[in-house]
Design brief:
By secondary structure, the protein is α+β, with helices and mostly antiparallel strands. About 30% of the residues lie in helices and about 30% in strands. The strands form 4 sheets. Strands 5, 6, 7, 8, 9, 10 and 11 form a 7-stranded mixed beta sheet that branches. Strands 1-2-4-17-13-14 form a 6-stranded antiparallel beta sheet, with helices on one face.
């Protein structure tokens, strides 16, 4: 384990959990890398170095029921109240076009008692009407955030409907353009939105996604999101992975607090090294699963399979090495017990990743009318949730299937499932529980 204290910010540490022993001819090395940031100065610290844009869906469907628009205004006002003095912020009205609600003029306001009051006054003028083109909201947020001289740039996006007024390709182009420029949490309110759209936005922009089925819960959720955002202190942190000649990285994925594939997001960082983006950090801990293919070696030989460190992007394109580092090793042995023992952390998160995939595939099969296939997949999900102790996911699954026997994964599909329950299970399918170390 190595750690590093960024002046005025959190101290980062890296821990590696693995079984480094391989049988003769073995080539696959798996490790769980735990990254922890502790001891920062938030919430009193970096107000002036953060900027937030709130994007509020104001399409016509937000008037059905009329309380939904009121709930959205109240939630956004509560988020504004949660802003610390010195934070740059703005509010965007999103329909088939994007419009600045506050402060206007292509700029952001700086939070203080006066600007917070003005923003809440401006929110009262929000009214529902128009279509939905989420890409326009994100591009406006990007322009506003780019103009702020800050390190943390974040968006909060709320939608209640499908992205019907632009193509999927247009939204993807926008997400590609915005990736790495700011992070974004996305929320779907009610049950008329598309789960894969909302989770796709959050995934591309390294934020969180969730459902708020009851609009009355929006204020609570927005306040929690903003409190988390105010706790971020280090932006644009990347996991830098170096591997020696002859090795190949099979995958890198975040596995806690949720499953997030990072393999294809690699950017080259010098000879045999690549950076995998992790977004902004406050006082928190996350786990990553690294799988490396190494050249086969003889018994008794050992090698460094990978070196994992942390870096943070700086203004002007420079990169700061945060100093925290962990080593992944490979040792070839004829000790069968040693080489076949599965590390507890690796086993746990392999199961969690399979759990998320089983839920997604099961729900897709159910929607496609393949009830036998859906039953098999969701039964496997119930089994995995029980083995891993993921009680929250087990409860969500129990609203979609009748559990006959959890240990064997024997279930029956429920004849009627509330749309909110199915969407909640799908949206939260990637949330994991930490392994007990």
């Amino acid at each position: 384990m190595a750690n590093f204290a960024k002046p005025g910010g959190p101290q980062f540490s890296v821990d590696v959990y693995q079984n480094e022993y391989l049988p003769e001819g073995g080539q696959e090395v798996n490790a769980i890398v735990t990254v922890t940031a502790k001891g920062g100065t938030a919430p009193a610290g970096p107000g002036a170095s953060a900027a937030v844009v709130l994007m509020v869906d104001c399409s016509g469907s937000m008037d059905y029921p009329p309380t939904k628009m009121r709930n959205a205004r109240d939630a956004t006002a509560a988020a504004v109240d949660t802003l610390r003095d010195g934070v740059h912020f703005g509010i965007v009205d999103g329909t088939h076009v994007a419009r600045e609600v506050y402060p206007g003029g292509g700029r952001l306001a700086v939070a203080d008692p006066t600007t917070r009051a003005q923003a809440k006054q401006a929110l009262r003028r929000l009214a529902a009407g128009g279509g939905t083109a989420i890409g326009t909201w994100l591009r406006l947020a990007d322009r506003l955030l780019a103009g702020a001289d800050v390190s943390i740039r974040h968006g909060i996006l709320l939608t209640d409907g499908r992205n019907e007024h632009e193509s999927a390709a247009e939204l993807k182009d926008t997400l590609d353009a915005c990736a790495g420029r700011f992070t974004c949490d996305a929320r779907g309110v009610g049950t008329d939105w598309e789960v894969k759209e909302v989770t796709g936005i959050a995934s591309a922009l390294l934020g969180t996604a969730d459902i708020v089925a009851d609009p009355a819960r929006l204020t609570e959720d927005f306040t929690r999101i903003m409190e988390s955002t105010m706790g971020k202190e280090v932006a644009d942190v990347a996991l830098r992975v170096w591997t020696p000649v002859g090795t190949r990285i099979k995958f890198v994925k975040q596995v806690a607090p949720s499953v997030e594939e990072l393999t294809d997001r690699r950017t080259e960082a010098g000879p045999r090294a690549g950076d995998y983006p992790t977004g902004s950090w406050g006082d928190e801990s996350r786990d990553y699963h690294l799988c490396v293919e190494v050249p086969a070696a003889g018994l008794g030989q050992e090698m460094l399979a990978a070196r994992v460190s942390l870096v943070a992007a700086q203004p002007g394109g420079e990169v700061q090495n945060l100093g925290a580092q962990g080593l992944v090793r490979a040792v070839w042995t004829d000790d069968v017990a040693a080489s076949t023992s599965l590390n507890a952390q690796v086993a746990h998160y392999t199961g969690q990743a399979e759990l998320a995939q089983a839920i997604r595939e099961g729900l897709d099969l159910r929607k496609a009318g393949d009830m036998d296939g859906a039953t098999a997949k969701l039964g496997r999900a119930v089994q995995l949730a029980g083995v891993s102790g993921n009680a929250d996911t087990a409860k969500l699954l129990a609203k979609v299937v009748d559990v006959v026997d959890a240990p064997t994964g024997t279930v029956r599909l429920k004849a009627k499932v509330a749309e909110a329950d199915e969407m909640t299970l799908e949206t939260r399918s990637t949330k994991t529980v930490r392994v007990k170390k």
